[in-house]
Write a structure and sequence with these properties.
By secondary structure, this protein is an alpha+beta fold. The chain has helices at about 15-25, 50-65, 75-90, 95-115, 165-170, 180-190, 195-200, 215-220, 375-380, 390-405, 410-415; strands at about 5-10, 30-35, 65-70, 120-125, 130, 150, 175, 225-230, 235-240, 260-270, 275-280, 285-290, 295, 310-315, 325-330, 335-345, 350-355, 360-370. Helix 1 runs parallel beside helix 2 (about 50-65), helix 1 crosses helix 6 (about 180-190) and helix 3 (about 75-90) packs antiparallel against helix 4 (about 95-115). The longest helix is centred in the first third of the chain and has 21 residues, at about 95-115. It starts with 5 loop residues before the first strand and ends with a helix.
Length: about 425
């Protein structure tokens, strides 16, 4: 049993962290709030959202009569999250800064600051998640280690964003909202004099982009590099883009002068070409094979993956999507994942997150995806020989990736062909 007296709460200025702090205070803990400033650059209108958020965080802590400490993690965020984001976009990938922020900032620097500088016995956040140690660490058991569990509110569940968090920090983290539904949280806030915070519009998207268009934002950090949009079926140039870094797979290209909608299907960074497909259900937008980097297991590697085994679990690569069944093989270089249903626009740079029986197991960065069998069948049976040179590049890339990722041919065969 862990003796917990002091808890440091990350207070963002929103209703979730406000109610988390409120619930902890009502349980009698010695509470202190910390506002993490991770960004300090104003947009083109001179507005910086962190300023307004800090004012709300101060209002919350004043109402709860708890001390608020302002901590500047701008340098850490810039070096370990934002620079990575820029590098990823320049390379044609689509990163997930929220996952990196949780791993590198909130459950690393914030955790260490709370423990080492403020003397915290535990930290708490307003995330919708649960752990095997309980909402208030009432089941703390260092020998067993902690497991990350999905929240009661399946719609708000945020375990996807916590899939790269380390054991040390998670063992000392409270998630007071894990057993609550979002409407309950807003009601608690309203009943305790925090009506203004309860009515506050929830932040959506990437915090430092704000209301700006992504293309306008990224242009401030990566110069435009004009190139061609090319129809993947006809190899016809359809228009011009300002850089592969401004587009992600599955995104509508919004080409003018064409009645049909076209969507980003592949990106060739070396040639600065974006291949577009006609229609949102074009087969080249779908795949069921994913190759990843080395995985991060929150608790431990699933036993089924040992000795070249195949592990069956659930997969998602976007927070808003449903979990889908998959089969996984682990190799010396990463994971090979076969998803039971073809998924649209699985994007390199994003994270493949795995779960089983309500436990978020961890995840890995997506390196590449395989060209689907359906895609190859479609092209072969529509006599589209003029795009064979495009597909050969991706098929050969998948083949090379398999050789790099697999320890032996038997494992490769089982991973790709298992139903």
């Amino acid at each position: 049993m862990l003796n917990i007296r002091k808890v440091v709460v990350g207070v963002s200025g929103g209703v979730d962290s406000a109610v988390a702090a409120l619930l902890l205070k009502k349980r009698g803990y010695d509470i202190q709030g910390v506002f993490m400033q991770n960004w300090d650059i104003a947009d083109e209108k001179g507005y910086c959202s962190s300023d307004a958020d800090y004012k709300d965080a101060a209002l919350i802590c004043a109402k709860l009569d708890i001390k608020l400490t302002h901590v500047n993690f701008v340098k850490h965020y810039w070096n370990e999250v934002f620079c990575n984001l820029i590098k990823e976009y320049e390379s044609g990938y689509t990163p997930n800064p929220d996952i990196l922020c949780n791993r590198n900032i909130k459950f690393n620097y914030f955790y260490k600051f709370a423990v080492n500088e403020l003397g915290a016995d535990a930290i708490a956040t307003g995330h919708y998640a649960r752990t095997s140690f309980g909402a208030f660490l009432e089941h703390y058991n260092l020998e067993k280690g902690v497991r990350l569990l999905s929240a009661a509110d399946w719609f708000k569940d945020q375990t996807f964003f916590l899939s790269q968090v380390n054991q040390e920090a998670l063992q000392r983290t409270m998630f007071p909202l894990g057993d609550l539904m979002k409407p309950q949280v807003k009601k608690i806030a309203t009943e305790n004099g925090l009506e203004k915070i309860a009515r506050k519009k929830e932040s959506m998207g990437i915090c430092f982009i704000g209301n700006r268009k992504f293309q306008d934002f990224i242009r401030e950090y990566i110069d435009d590099k004009p190139g061609d949009f090319v129809d993947v079926d006809t190899v016809r140039v359809m228009g011009e883009h300002n850089g592969v870094h401004q587009w992600t797979l599955g995104q509508r290209a919004r080409l003018s002068s064409y009645e049909s909608a076209y969507f980003v299907a592949r990106k060739d960074v070396d040639k600065n070409i974006i291949y577009v497909a006609k229609g949102t259900k074009h087969p080249l937008l779908y795949t069921n094979i994913i190759f990843t980097s080395e995985p991060h297991w929150i608790h431990s590697q699933p036993p089924d993956l040992q000795n070249g085994g195949v592990f069956e679990c659930d997969f998602k690569f976007q927070h808003t999507k449903y979990w889908v069944k998959c089969q996984v093989c682990q190799t010396s270089k990463g994971l090979i994942i076969k998803v039971n249903k073809y998924k649209r626009a699985i994007t390199p740079g994003q994270y493949a997150v795995l779960s089983k029986d309500g436990e978020c197991l961890g995840g890995a960065r997506i390196i590449n995806t395989g060209v689907s069998h359906f895609s190859l069948y479609y092209l072969e049976n529509n006599s589209l020989a003029n795009v064979s040179h495009i597909l050969k590049k991706y098929v050969s890339k998948v083949s090379d990736s398999e050789d790099d990722l697999t320890d032996n041919e038997d494992m490769k065969h089982r991973a790709v062909n298992r139903c």
